Amino acid sequence: MPLSAEQAAAVATELREAQDAERGELDVLRRYWTGRQRLPAVIPADAPAEIKELARVCRINVISIVVDSLTQALFVDGFRTEVVPEPVEDGGEPEPVDVDAPHWQVWQANRMDKRQSGLHRAAVAYGTAYAVVTPGEPVPVIRPYSPRLLTAMYGEDDDWPVRALVKRPNAGDWRLVDREAVYTLRWQDSQFVPVSIAGLPPGLPGAPVVRYRDAEDLDLDDDAEPDDLRGGFVQNTTRVVAGQVAPLIPLQDQINLTSFMLKGAEWYSAFRQRWAIGWTPASPDEKMRSAASQLWTFDEDPQNMSLGEFEQTDLGGYLSARESTLKYAATLSQTPVHELIGELVNLSAEALAAAEAGRDRKVDERKTGLGESHEQLFQLVGRYIGVPVPDDAQVIWRDTSARSFAATVDGLGKLAQMLGVPAEELWPQIPGVTQQDVRRWKARAAQADPLTSLEAELARQAEGVSEAAPL
Q: What global pTM score does this model have?
């Protein structure tokens, strides 16, 4: 039974309190992800303006490269399921066949080819993201959300939440979702005011919200308390340990500080400075001329004067320290080193594949976990459109590995020739081929196959004879 307006407002208030408690830490992750984290606490608040400006420009955003490197390898290109045709006339058992599921049309209608990047990117960065599926015309509506905008409350069932609260900044309202209905509310005068209630189809296992996680961690919901080694400083801190951003925050701070010290050395002592003892310029103009002069001459008491210069600061140590930190970040995040430091010289396809092997393993793990969430999403869509999705259905991921295209095609050809794998079953494994491409190829192949055309013609003629027989 749906909640009353008062109950919906009370539940939404409770969930908003939880969302506000999480929002502070998620905002820290967001700032690090976008390169807008606060200045290091080692810089005094009363530091000169030029120091603060140097610290601002020294924020080198490495975390975004790690997030993008992983996200850009995660694209869903199709969804296929297995169905059993109607029983044949002779009573034989029909063979299951793979078909293009109608659920994929719902995906396409919601422009999820575009929206999936934001969904995957939020899951990778924060560790968690969500997708909400609600009824719509002509197809159900799928909308992804980051954890900064959606808070879900789970019970005993870890797959389906009991209820969830969604903040919709563009619409200017909030939505409370449970298994019974979708409640639209507005925040007015420090309280929620219900606007409308829309019922959901009966029989849903929970609120129509699917959770996406960057990686499965069985201790994530009951983690150990971290040691406080911050010495009282509370800037740029978070207890969140999931996702790709949080573990790299210390290294990002190290890179920023090293870059700050490098720029400070460049600004104050990376050039040679000359000094003179026993002579003082009579005016600022004379001082300027002496600074720009290649030859200094003195006609009074030269024996009482001393000239010299300070050595310039060696910047090599700062550059080496920053490069070492970047390599360490690449190792911890399993990101190819050349993507962080830009060193890529005449690598063959095999060498490039070896350099990206660690990232490929990481991508495969994400495809498995996120793929299960996508399949759960399609099962929810199936409940809306009345087409159940079996548990063995699977999504089709785009191949973005660095393997040679020629080597991949050669391997697929050998599978077809040496092992007898049907060629049409190998088409989806060709890099860059989408489900729409495969569908079009199969249609063209059916038209060009003489045997298939003959069978279709005979079937058409047989139908004509059977219709004319009673006459």
A: 0.76
